[in-house]
């Protein structure tokens, strides 16, 4: 996008957004891709005339409230939102809380990898999205209350999440997995110092888990990126897989994937998990 004016950004991102992702049905009568101007106006709580003036550069000083509303309506990433604020001559807002929105593009991407166990986590390690293969490997997270779908709480807490979590060991050594999660949580606190839910999570685990408190006192700031994990599965026994953590720039999400090299025991276990999911679907 060579023209970085507010109006050009607005038009470009409106044309990019799939109407279905914004809750509007696709129609053969649509003459152009993307969201219609009146649909953007409805989503942002603005008049169609004002959206037109913004796109044409005739409304040159939109308020922060207007820019925020437009950014939410267009499903912009934090980086894109900040760019829109700067184009409006405004300071970009500082994120105060951990984001929990999984953009439609990320959902489409991970859905294409449905033959692998995949989970999408927020910066505080709350599980936001998962597929059937994740359920086959780790159990069904939907059986848990949303607050108990947090990996740190499952590792160190005493609630339903800890009882649901299947035993996991790391090839990096004893306590390596737990140490990495605590270090990653410390980094999240540094990025979101004003998030009350994140602060409450850390306070809770420091109070209820001496192990967490001890790791919190010494953990560094390195991010969890990948490992060789062994999951104790109730039907298959020990399942050893490569676990990689992919970060999503601009939205502060983590995509956790499990894979195995062809011909390994892990690859055979993945085949069995796929077969089990197909059998349940019939």
From TrEMBL:
InterPro entries: Cro/C1-type_HTH, Lambda_DNA-bd_dom_sf, MLTR_LBD. Transmembrane segments: none annotated. Signal peptide: none annotated. Pfam families: HTH_31, MLTR_LBD. Residues 28-81 form the HTH cro/C1-type domain. This is Helix-turn-helix transcriptional regulator.
């Amino acid at each position: 996008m060579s023209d970085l004016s507010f109006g050009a950004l607005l038009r470009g991102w409106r044309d990019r957004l799939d109407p279905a992702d914004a809750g509007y049905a696709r129609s053969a009568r649509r003459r152009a891709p993307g969201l219609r101007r009146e649909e953007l106006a409805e989503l942002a709580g603005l008049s169609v005339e004002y959206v037109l003036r913004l796109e044409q550069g005739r409304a040159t000083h939109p308020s922060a409230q207007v820019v925020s509303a437009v950014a939410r309506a267009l499903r912009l990433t934090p980086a894109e939102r900040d760019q829109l604020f700067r184009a409006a001559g405004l300071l970009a807002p500082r994120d105060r809380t951990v984001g929990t929105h999984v953009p439609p593009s990320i959902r489409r991407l991970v859905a294409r990898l449905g033959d692998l166990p995949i989970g999408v986590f927020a910066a505080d390690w709350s599980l936001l999205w998962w597929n059937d293969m994740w359920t086959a490997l780790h159990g069904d997270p939907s059986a848990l209350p949303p607050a108990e779908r947090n990996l740190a709480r499952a590792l160190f807490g005493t609630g339903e999440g800890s009882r649901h979590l299947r035993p996991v060991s790391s090839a990096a050594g004893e306590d390596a997995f737990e140490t990495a999660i605590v270090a990653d949580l410390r980094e999240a606190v540094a990025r979101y110092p004003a998030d009350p839910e994140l602060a409450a999570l850390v306070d809770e685990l420091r109070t209820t888990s001496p192990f967490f408190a001890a790791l919190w006192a010494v953990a560094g700031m390195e991010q969890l990126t990948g490992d060789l994990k062994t999951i104790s599965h109730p039907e298959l026994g020990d399942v050893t897989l490569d676990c990689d953590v992919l970060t999503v720039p601009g939205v502060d999400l983590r995509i956790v994937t499990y894979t195995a090299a062809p011909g390994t025991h892990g690859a055979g276990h993945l085949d069995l998990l796929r077969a089990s999911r197909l059998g349940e679907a019939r």
